[in-house]
Amino acid sequence: MPQKPKLGQNLLVDAQAAHKIVAALGDVTGHTVAEIGPGRGAITGILAGRAGRVLAIELDHAFAQDLRMRFAPDRVAVVEQDVLSFHFAAAAAEAGERLRVIGNLPYYITSPILLKLAASHTALELAILMVQREVADRVTAQPGSRDYGLLSATVQLYGPVEQLFTLPPSAFSPAPKVHSTVFRWRFAPRFAELGIQLGIDEPGFLRFLRQAFAQKRKTLANNLRAAGLSPAVAASALAQAGINGKARAEALPLETMAALWRGLEEQLPVSKQGA
After folding, report:
1. CATH at 95
2. Is 192 among the domain residues?
C-alpha cells in the first residue's frame, strides 16, 4: 500500500503535469538537479531519465527508503534531510556547476524554503517550483499591487520570476482545498544594479526591507520610525529619495527602496537600526 504523506505534502499524481514541470527546467542532460520533497517520485522518475544526476532531498524516511529501492544511486542520490539544512553550495561545488532546482513545496514551509534558496543563490541557476496559487501571486506581484510585499521584494531581489501554469486540486493526493501554481525563478541578483555590495551591504539592505514592510497598513515613514529612526532622519531620507511621506513600502519598486536605503546609510548605518 502506498505511503501517506506525513509532513504536510500534497503529492502530485497527474503524470502529464509532472512532465510539463520537468520540461520547464529546459535541457538538463549532463546537469545536476536538486529536487525538493520528491515524495513518491512522480517528478523524480522523469528526471532520472533526463538529468545527469538527481539529488532527491526527502525528509520522510519511508519515502526516502522507497526512492532508494526504485532508483540507481548513480542516477538518483537520495538525501534524507530537511531541505532547510541542506548545503546547496557544497552540492554545487561537488557537481562543478550551479544547480537547477525543482520541487513541489509543502505549503506550511514555503516561505522558509524560498528564503533558503535566496540565501543559496550563488550555488543556483534556476528553480521550477510549485506552490499554493496565492503564494505564487505574492512572489510574482508587482509594486503597487495588492499582493506585493516583503516576500515579493525579497524573491525578486535575487532574480526574475514568472508564473508558468496552475494545477487544480485533483492533480494531487490528498487533494488540497486550493489550486497550485508553478513558477520559474532565475537566479540573477540585482544588488549591483541597485548600488549594493553583495555579501557586504546585502544583510543591511535585507534588514531594511524587513523594517520597511513590518506593518503593511502603516506608511513607510511610520515603519522606519518604529524601527528606531528619528522622524527627522526618516523625513529627510524620504525627501532625498523623492518619496511621498505617506507612501507605503508595497507601492515602491526595489530601485526606489535601494535609493532610500543608500540615503539612510549616508546619515547613519541602517545596519545598526533595529538591531
Report:
1. 3.40.50.150
2. no
Cα gap 178→68, rounded to integer Å: 31
Lowest mean pLDDT among 27-41, 71-85, 197-211: 197-211
Grid cell locating 63: 519515502
Residue 20 neighbours by CB under 8 Å, 6+ apart:
165, 182
**130-139: per-residue pLDDT in tens?**
999 999 999 9
* Cell 508553478 -> residue: 182
Question: 121 and 84 share a domain?
Answer: yes
Other Cβ atoms within 10 Å of 47 Cβ, number: 26
**Residue type at 148 in one-letter notation:** Y
Question: Does a structural domain hold residue 6?
Answer: no
- Are residues 168 and 212 both part of a single domain? no
Q: What is the extent of the structural domain holding 157? A: 11-186
Of the candidates 126, 130, 91, which has an alpha carbon nearest to the alpha carbon of residue 110? 130
CATH number at residue 223: 1.10.8.100
Residues in the chain, total? 275
pLDDT band per the 50, 70, 90 thresholds, residue 269: low
